[in-house]
């Protein structure tokens, strides 16, 4: 199953665009920072990931403040060209 839940801050948002079919689309970059235990040791985790949202979800995310923290749910897929992973956001809620 390809299901991702990630608490992250909205670090960067591109201008709202539309697909050739007229669907709103929003490209963004999310940043995550946390501590987690791995092999009996605490590990600091910092990461950034590209993300995309479509339709009403894109419009909702586009109205949020840069730097605000949310819990995003969605799935991972290769970006066009297949070199990078992109989180496709299906939902988000206040963390």
Automatic annotation (TrEMBL):
Pfam family, one: SSB_1
Function: Involved in the restart of stalled replication forks, which reloads the replicative helicase on sites other than the origin of replication; the PriA-PriB pathway is the major replication restart pathway. During primosome assembly it facilitates complex formation between PriA and DnaT on DNA; stabilizes PriA on DNA. Stimulates the DNA unwinding activity of PriA helicase.
Subunit structure: Homodimer. Interacts with PriA and DnaT. Component of the replication restart primosome. Primosome assembly occurs via a 'hand-off' mechanism. PriA binds to replication forks, subsequently PriB then DnaT bind; DnaT then displaces ssDNA to generate the helicase loading substrate.
A GO term from the CC aspect: primosome complex
UniProt record, GO biological process: DNA replication, synthesis of primer
Keywords per UniProt: DNA replication, DNA-binding, Primosome
Assigned protein family: Belongs to the PriB family.
Protein name: Replication restart protein PriB
Domain of life: Bacteria
UniProt GO MF annotations: single-stranded DNA binding
